[in-house]
Design a protein that fits this description.
This protein is an alpha/beta fold. 57% of the residues lie in helices and 12% in strands. It starts with a strand and ends with a helix. Bound molecules: adenosine-5'-diphosphate. The site of adenosine-5'-diphosphate (ADP) has 14 residues, from helix 1, helix 7 and helix 10.
Length: 198
Amino acid sequence: MRIGLTGGIGSGKSTVAARLAALGAAIVDTDAIARELTAAGGAAIEALRDAFGARAIAADGALDRAFMRAHVFVDAAARRRLEGILHPMIAVEALRRADAAGAAPVVFDVPLLAESAHWRARVQRVLVVDCAESTQVERVVRRSGWSADEVRRVIAQQTPRARRRAIADAVIHNDGLPLDALHAEVDALWAHWSAAVL
Ligand code: ADP
């Protein structure tokens, strides 16, 4: 069984992923893979240097994220080039990790699932964790100490909630839900999907 998991910042996606891991799922985190690929010595660094020049690589050998963010913000072609390098490498590594999980059900944690028909074709079910924007802001302010405006800016750059919900096979509404109730919802969904696939 392969499941795609997505949700906006502060929605509770990581909390749901941790519960799914406790139920026996292998979690493949595509954000973590992207960070590894672009860290110093990461497999994408040389291709990124070829594409964007030495200025794209920081003194420590990692991708210069601040440079890259500013660059792709003003240049859509550069964004496509960056994604053209990273997305296939992320997919290859994610699928390698899924295969390494053997018989365990796999949950792919993919922030851009709603943007990617490729990813949706690789999973049998899509699980979306959703909550009100005000809840997202409140959680992330508490967790990271960012200002509410900073959090709102990040949310504005992410996939709109409605677009995420539109691709969902199941939505967990993680609002005003005590943690044990959230866990119970995940458990019930897991039991339901496991039975359907068996
Ligand atoms: P995401 O991965 O979507 O950014 P997290 O799972 O890290 O979100 O959740 C953000 C914060 O909110 C975390 O500190 C988490 O413990 C807390 N949280 C999420 N859902 C609940 C809930 N139902 N009850 C209490 N705290 C929650």
